[in-house]
Design goal:
The protein is mainly beta. It has 2 domains: about 10-75, no CATH class; about 80-395, Neuraminidase (6 Propeller). Helix content is about 15%, strand content about 40%. The termini are far apart.
Length: about 400
């Protein structure tokens, strides 16, 4: 006789029920157990990272069917589909309509309505930010005027909600960003970084207004960084991770840093970035659940020699760990004197789940992918006429209570 199976943990219980699913389908009890097994497996799979979930597609045909079932897909984490981009640079660093979309290489994304035509009576919709499947847009009341409302929407489900006004003049808002993590909560946050209004050029950030979909209101908090902070690189969009908004900044007018603020405006940090004297402003993005920072190093003669990628180890020590390094000659080959990285290079994305970097390079824009694991440099078709910012997008099929008309 076999030993009894311990069903104290969900995973072991799921394993037990997997044996039960082969009970006779002619028995009502057998069918009930089979349904219970599938629901339990989906619940377990929903708690796995996307990378691990993809590996489970090879387990069996039954598990593959579970993952691809339309109802189950609403609960399971999704792989990145691609990124939004525009066709012209904008001074306020948003994507003006019409917004374009490009698939990640090897991906065939579901149809995405980048025009947000599901919004009733929509005129002009400008995309401000994208975070874990949700978008925040400026929804203009009329095609001629400048009056707008913030709208947070999910293009995969075509659900949306209009936010109340924060009370801050548009002229004082340096940038507006979205924070959302479905693994933690169904609620989202909107951040307005507020400028010092009496400065005309590169004004300091003096505070943050935060909207919470849980409370339905805005709060404003004055800045508590231990230095003057101003945005220096709008090409590198802020990143929401671990309940914090991160953005690159000029710290005290001396050196670049990473500025951090939480969703309640209670925790403020400024963290030095690696290679502060590098050629370019760096590039931050969330990848594999951690904050990544990429930049180019220079030699003593000022020549760009190496691409480096770091990961933030923890917030207490403010320590960065070098993840990857590669010579620029390997990436770009021998370039002529007319090629300058500070003018002819644009970051696009660090893949949210893989060790891959996407960028545009050269006078004749070339969309390029670099795989840090294999060392492969690949020229790929894509948005050759694209302009930053580029916003990675992961479909979200879950129904969220905060999104309603």
């Amino acid at each position: 006789m076999s030993d009894p199976v311990d069903t104290s943990s969900p995973l072991k219980k799921g394993r037990t029920l997997s044996r039960c699913r082969y009970a006779s389908p002619h028995s009502d009890g057998g069918m009930a157990v089979e349904r219970l097994t599938d629901d339990l497996l989906v619940e377990i799979l929903a708690r796995l990272p996307v990378k691990s979930l993809c590996r489970f597609k090879c387990v069996s045909n039954h598990w593959l069917a579970l993952i691809h079932h339309p109802e189950h897909r609403k609960k399971l984490p999704q792989t990145p589909a691609g990124f939004f981009y525009g066709s012209a640079n904008t001074s306020d660093w948003l994507l003006k309509s019409p917004v374009r979309f490009a698939d990640f290489p090897g991906r065939c994304s579901p149809p995405i309505d980048t025009s947000c035509a599901f919004l009733p009576n929509h005129r002009r919709v400008h995309l401000l930010d994208c975070c874990n499947g949700l978008l925040i847009c400026r929804w203009y009341v009329s095609a001629q005027g400048d009056e707008f409302h913030y709208v947070v929407c999910n293009p995969a489900t075509e659900k949306w909600t209009v936010l109340p006004d924060s009370g801050k003049p548009t002229s004082e808002v340096a940038t507006t960003r979205l924070g959302f993590d479905p693994a933690v909560s169904s609620h989202f946050y909107v951040f307005e970084l507020i400028n010092e209004h009496d400065q005309l050029w590169d004004p300091d950030i003096v505070g943050v207004a935060v909207y919470s979909s849980e409370t339905g209101g805005w709060v404003y908090k004055e800045k508590k960084w231990n230095a003057d902070i101003r945005i220096i690189n709008r090409q590198s969009a802020p990143v929401f991770l671990n309940g914090y908004l991160h953005f690159e900044a000029d710290c005290g007018g001396i050196s670049p840093c990473l500025a951090v603020v939480d969703t309640k405006g209670e925790t403020w940090m400024n963290i030095d970035v690696p290679d502060a004297d590098a050629l370019l402003d760096g590039f931050i993005q969330r990848s594999q659940g951690r904050l990544h920072y990429a930049n180019f190093q220079q030699d003593e003669d000022g020549f760009t020699i190496r691409l480096v990628v770091y990961v933030l180890e923890n917030y207490q020590s403010k320590e960065w760990i070098l993840k990857h390094s590669v010579d620029t000659s390997y990436l770009f080959g021998e370039t002529d004197s007319h090629f300058r990285l500070d003018q002819d290079f644009e970051w696009i994305a660090i893949h949210p789940e893989c060790n891959m970097i996407f960028f545009n390079v050269g006078w004749f824009i070339t969309f390029t992918c670099y795989n840090m694991d294999s060392g492969q440099v690949k020229l790929i078709s894509g948005p050759v006429d694209g302009k930053p910012p580029y916003m990675p997008y992961v479909p979200l099929y879950a129904e969220l209570q905060p999104l309603h008309i």
